[in-house]
Specification:
- This protein is of the alpha+beta class.
- It has a single domain, classed as Alpha-Beta Plaits, CATH 3.30.70.20.
- Helix content is about 20%, strand content about 20%.
- The strands form 2 sheets. Strands 1-4 form a two-stranded antiparallel sheet.
- It is globular, with a radius of gyration of 10 Å.
- The protein starts with a strand and ends with a strand.
- It binds iron/sulfur cluster.
- The site of iron/sulfur cluster has 15 residues, from helix 1.
Length: about 60
């Protein structure tokens, strides 16, 4: 995969949308924020639609 999603930990409010929609890509860290643990857990299209576009605070980005 060329692109990899990452979560801006400062902005994440821990709503759980990305973790619930794509549990093979995102999980919660000990501080209650989401993080990407497997960028290959789903397709770029699904990550865009189900996580990046859904995040209420727009804190998931491609790097
Ligand atoms: S959708 Fe956004 S705010 Fe919600 S847990 Fe995921 S990264 Fe955090």
């Amino acid at each position: 995969m060329e692109k990899e999603p990452f979560v801006d930990q400062e902005m994440c409010i821990g709503c759980g949308i990305c973790v619930n929609n794509l549990p093979d890509v995102f999980h919660f860290t000990a501080n209650g924020k989401a993080a990407c643990f497997d960028p290959n857990g789903d397709t770029e299209e699904e990550i865009q639609l189900q996580a990046i576009d859904m995040c209420p605070v727009t804190c998931i980005h491609w790097k």
